[in-house]
Amino acid sequence: MEYLGERVAYLKGLAEGLKIDENTNEGKLLKNIIDILADFAEAITDLEDSHAQLSEHVEDIDEDLAQLEYEVYDDEDEYDDYDEDEDDEDEEIEYFEVECPNCHETVYLDENMFDSEDEEEIICPNCKEPIEIEFECDCGHDHDHEH
Question: How many CB atoms are located within 10 Å of the residue 82 CB?
Fold first, then answer.
């Protein structure tokens, strides 16, 4: 936005060309407005420079991070799998608070633990003893839901 500085310089030149008297109230006002515009143009130029330096720094960090990911995951496919796992984890998982009947520790179980058919029983992460959980069913049938 160097054109702002050029436009302010044009206004200064125009004010001088029009021979605006700086001793009048209007002349003082216009001169101060032009000076303030010059300050804004300079501040914007400084911000642009800072932004360019910051962008360059972020780009360097991004390249370093990409290199680090490549070294850590060694294989882009492995990274993609990890990324997909992260996406899956971002989905909202409902947790159930359960008190272990053995150690009486409160544990949090996610809903996926109950959906898995491979899991025969749920093991307390604290005491490693099986936790028997009974669900109250609101299906209206007379049966037990037990895991």
Answer: 13
pTM: 0.45
Choose among 65, 10, 61: nearest CA to 38.
10
What is the chain's length?
A: 147
With a CB cutoff of 8 Å and minimum separation 6, the contacts of 79 are 69, 70, 73
The rounded distance, in Å, linking the Cα atoms of 121 and 86 is 26
Task: Dump the DSSP string for 97-120.
Answer: EEE-TTT--EEEEETHHHH-SS-S
CB 96 within 8 A of CB 87: no
The token pair at 144 is 């037990």
Per-residue pLDDT of the chain (147 residues; tens, 9 = 90+): 678 999 999 999 999 999 999 999 999 999 999 999 999 999 999 999 999 999 999 999 999 999 998 888 875 555 565 555 555 555 677 777 888 888 888 888 777 777 666 556 788 777 888 887 776 666 666 655 544
